[in-house]
Automatic annotation (TrEMBL):
UniProt xrefs under InterPro entries: AAA_lid_NorR, Homeodomain-like_sf, HTH_Fis, P-loop_NTPase, PAS, PAS-like_dom_sf, Sig_transdc_resp-reg_PrpR_N, Sigma_54_int
Record lineage: Bacteria, Bacillati, Bacillota, Clostridia, Lachnospirales
Domain PAS: start-end pairs: 195-259
SMART domains, alphabetized: PAS
Residue ranges of every copy of the Sigma-54 factor interaction domain listed in the record: 327-553
Recorded superkingdom: Bacteria
Keywords: ATP-binding, Nucleotide-binding, Transcription, Transcription regulation
Short name of one Pfam family: PrpR_N
Transmembrane segments: none
Name the UniProt record assigns to this protein: Sigma 54-interacting transcriptional regulator
Key word Protein biosynthesis present: no
Length: 633
């Protein structure tokens, strides 16, 4: 049971406290402690439930360095010091004696007017550290006092001066004051402890994980659910920065929430392989952000879809679900690109992304939006491919009441207000469409409402193309003004042919996905993987995914060798041309075996023995096959 412990230096104080404590049920320990035992007695008191300790002088100071609970000092009252001074005057028998009062500073009350009150020369000597205590001895020695009064333990150290000493008499007053202060502290601690218990019980009964961080991002609290999510105990987490515990967390967004007031922020997060929804809310005290709460909810695939639908409804259907973490890569080129994209995401300047169509480009666009201050705004994507100039303008800028039976069409720019608009196939945009976009960017012309008013918009523009901006300018695909507006921030997404190591990542990713989906157990040989790694994937990761799914569905063998991969690629993409001396031929006229035969010869530079070995046939059979298909040396 929690309570107050009184650790007292002498029998006199113990007897006074013993009587007073009878009226204070919160005092659970009242005992005398010797100087050599004070630390051990304090620790034992804490073990027995003490949440406040009452002590005096140097013992109180030593206890403060030993335990982490409040310590209340028993301070000499004016009454106690006054009674001792009167007694000292009787002993000295001088009309105006010189009296020194010695002790630890925390033991003193106000003695400013004592000389007037007691008609004596009085000086206080106090110390707060060992160094001050030694200098105090020298000062007392040279001062020339008729008598010294103070605590017994300190007075004993002045025996060598041959100056009379007198301990300060203790009364009930100082003990009652100390107990009263301790009671107040105890009550406050109990209220705090009960409130914390209620809060902790509430937090532990929650189905969500909850983490509290301070203004520096340091974790100061978490509930039991969070321990299970992180697979870490509180001792491993408290006092650590949140970014060191949750590696996938977006530290820039944490910084934004801690430094600019926002109601809340939500995002998907991956923690130890589990999909999570994270809600981040700032903690405001006196209009100052002192920290934030992070709520973590485990989600199943259905939960994730439901959450996405809710977010889509909240933002009018325009939501970016992907982040930079969804991009599959290990190559240095992609690593540099993503770091550059993170920097560009902090700008509002129009951005150009050059690269093949596919998941990487889409994830890059969404990642830039979700990494920016516009994350909670809409994310809209439109394409210029195959549209007339009139339809492009309507798609982007909308139309007034005079069109479509007086029904106003809301354009993509207005839908993306406060967020990001991605325009794909920008090379197909008409010159007039490009000029209108340039005016919108440079002059913030906004869009015209049906009543003739102009609505100003706040939109970040991202445009994409498979062709480089420079090449489009050389081909006059984009206007002069458009080129210079978008040439400031350009990201070039490297093709897979420039990052072969990423091909392996995609193959492994999709192989795992589709073997699990279709309950297959297939593995690629090293030779097959090497072939896929060097293959020219013109369709980027999208082509890899479609190929892997087809392979998993149709190939019945568990171990997939190189020749199987080659044959399937030729079957799926027969329009490719292979050129190597006299082996050059259009594949569209070949059957699967002819394609395999020609590719194997290509690989072995026409060496028949090596080709026959790879195909598992004899050199004679190989010669017959070559003759059949008209392949010459």
């Amino acid at each position: 049971m929690p309570g107050i412990a009184m650790l007292l230096p002498n029998i006199e104080l113990l007897q006074i406290a013993g009587e007073i404590c009878k009226d204070h049920s919160n005092v659970i320990i009242c005992k005398r402690t010797l100087n050599e035992n004070v630390e051990a007695d304090a620790k034992e008191a804490v073990k027995m439930g003490a949440s406040v300790i009452v002590a005096r002088g140097t013992q109180a100071e030593r206890i403060r360095y030993t335990v982490d609970i409040p310590v209340v000092d028993i301070v000499w009252t004016a009454q106690e010091i006054g009674l001792t001074i009167l007694k000292a005057k009787e002993m000295i028998k001088d009309t105006y004696p010189v009296i020194g009062i010695i002790g630890l500073k925390s033991m003193f009350c106000d003695t400013v007017h004592f000389e007037t009150l007691f008609h004596a020369k009085i000086k206080t000597f106090y110390y707060t550290s060992i160094e001050e205590k030694e200098s105090m001895f020298k000062e007392v020695d040279t001062w020339g006092a008729d008598m010294l009064i103070g605590a017994q333990d300190i007075l004993r150290q002045f025996g060598y001066l041959n100056i009379p000493v007198l301990p300060v008499e203790s009364t009930e007053e100082s003990v009652r004051i100390a107990i009263s202060q301790a009671e107040t502290l105890f009550s406050n601690n109990e209220i705090k402890r009960r409130n914390e218990s209620k809060v902790n019980s509430l937090l532990d009964s929650m189905f969500n994980g909850l983490i509290q961080i301070d203004s520096t991002g340091t974790i100061v609290m978490m509930n039991r659910i969070t321990e299970g999510i992180l697979n870490k105990g509180q001792e491993e987490v408290l006092g650590k920065n949140v970014k060191d515990i949750i590696k996938d967390i977006n530290t820039d967004l944490i910084h934004q929430v801690l430094n600019s007031p926002r109601e809340s922020f939500s995002s998907f997060l991956n923690v130890n392989g589990r999909a999570m929804v994270m809600i981040l809310s700032p903690i405001m005290v006196d209009d100052q952000i002192t920290g934030a709460y992070l709520s973590l909810k485990k989600i199943s695939r259905n939960d994730e879809i439901d959450y996405a639908i809710q977010e889509a409804e909240r933002r009018g259907g325009f939501v970016a679900y992907r982040n930079f973490g969804d991009i599959c890569y290990t190559s240095e080129k992609m690593s540099r690109l993503i770091e550059q994209a993170k920097l560009y995401s902090q700008s509002n300047t129009p951005l150009m992304i050059e690269g093949q169509t596919g998941d990487d480009r889409e994830s890059l666009c969404q990642g830039i939006h979700n990494y920016s201050l516009r994350k909670n705004g809409p994310y809209v994507m439109v394409s210029m491919v195959g549209l007339s100039q009139e339809r492009q303008m309507e798609l982007l800028f909308g139309s007034g009441d005079e069109r479509r039976n007086s029904q106003r069409v809301i354009g993509a720019l207005e839908k993306a207000n406060g967020g990001t608009l991605v325009i794909t196939g920008i090379g197909f945009a008409a010159a007039s469409t490009q000029s209108a976009l340039c005016r919108f960017i440079r002059e913030n012309t906004g869009v015209q409402l049906g009543n003739g008013e102009i609505k100003l918009l706040d939109v970040r523009l991202i445009v994409t193309s498979t062709e480089s901006l420079l090449q489009m300018r050389k081909n006059n695909t984009v206007t002069f003004t458009f080129y210079y507006i978008f040439s400031g921030l350009v990201l070039r997404l490297p093709p897979l042919s420039e990052r072969r190591e990423d091909v392996v990542n995609f193959v492994n990713l999709y192989l795992k996905r589709y073997t699990q989906r279709y309950s297959r157990y297939q593995v690629l040989t090293d030779e097959a993987m090497d072939y896929l790694k060097t293959y020219n994937w013109c369709g980027s990761a999208l082509q890899i995914e479609r190929f892997i799914e087809r392979m998993v569905l149709t190939i019945e063998k568990r171990t997939i060798k190189k020749h199987i991969v080659e044959g399937l690629l030729q079957e799926m993409y027969p329009d490719e041309v292979f050129e190597e001396g006299n082996l050059a031929v259009k594949e569209e006229s070949m059957d699967a075996y002819e394609i395999l035969l020609r590719n194997t010869l290509l690989k072995n530079s026409g060496n028949r023995n090596a080709t026959a070995k790879d195909l598992g046939i004899s050199p004679t059979t190989l010669w017959r096959k070559m003759k059949k298909y008209g392949i010459t040396d």
